[in-house]
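Researcher: Let's walk through a ligand-bound prediction step by step. First, I give you the protein sequence. Second, the SMILES string for zinc ion. Third, you return the three-dimensional complex as structure tokens. Ready?
Model: Ready.
Researcher: Here are steps one and two:
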Amino acid sequence: MLLFTRPAEPSDFAKKVKAAKEHVAAAVNEGRPLDSKHDFDSIWSQFKDLFSQAQKGKCGFCERDVRTCFGGDVEHYRPKNGIEELPPDEADRGLEDEFTGKLRRKRNLSDAFKSGYWWLAYEWSNYLVACPRCNRTWKRCLFPIAEARTKKPDPEDAETPLLLNPFGPEDPTQHLAYDEFGQITPRDKSARGRATIETCGFGPTPLFSTSAAHCRRRSQPAR
Ligand SMILES: [Zn+2]
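Model: Step three, the predicted complex:
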């Protein structure tokens, strides 16, 4: 995971997302539950190329080449609609075959809150490009914070994100260490490093050194 410079917000971005942003705000004001498919216009995908260029064609989390997966997805750093949580048992956090990429063990995330950071759905500062595996299979609607999460997100909340962001402000490489086998561990016991590894599913696994050595959690792809 690398540090990139966020692309400049296009001059017409606010104009292009205005209607979609207002639609979501109106639904929230009405007290209506938001539907990911029908309430959120995916107009953000128009800007995918800008983020891909800024990220040098790499997934913002795992560094996979997004040019080989249709340019990847525009990912919301803070989930727009719902918050998920990791299961307490590591055995339920998913396992991926090293060579095929197929899931050998399902990732059983639980819904913590049906509402997410809806007011950031159309904020330029909340976007990055991620590969489908990171966006749809691993990170999904996870967003760990340092504080105990006891209620749905609110614009007034002060919170401390634990998930590293490829657009900073902190350099992810200061929180993640890579060994000669590509395994990733928290650098200097970094809490942000650990949370990012757990969220994106690219940490070492105890199974790596057992008879199931061909199965492991995701590792750092070849650069
Ligand atoms: Zn990825």
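Researcher: And what stands out?
Model: The chain has one domain: 13-216. The first strand starts at residue 73 and ends at 76.
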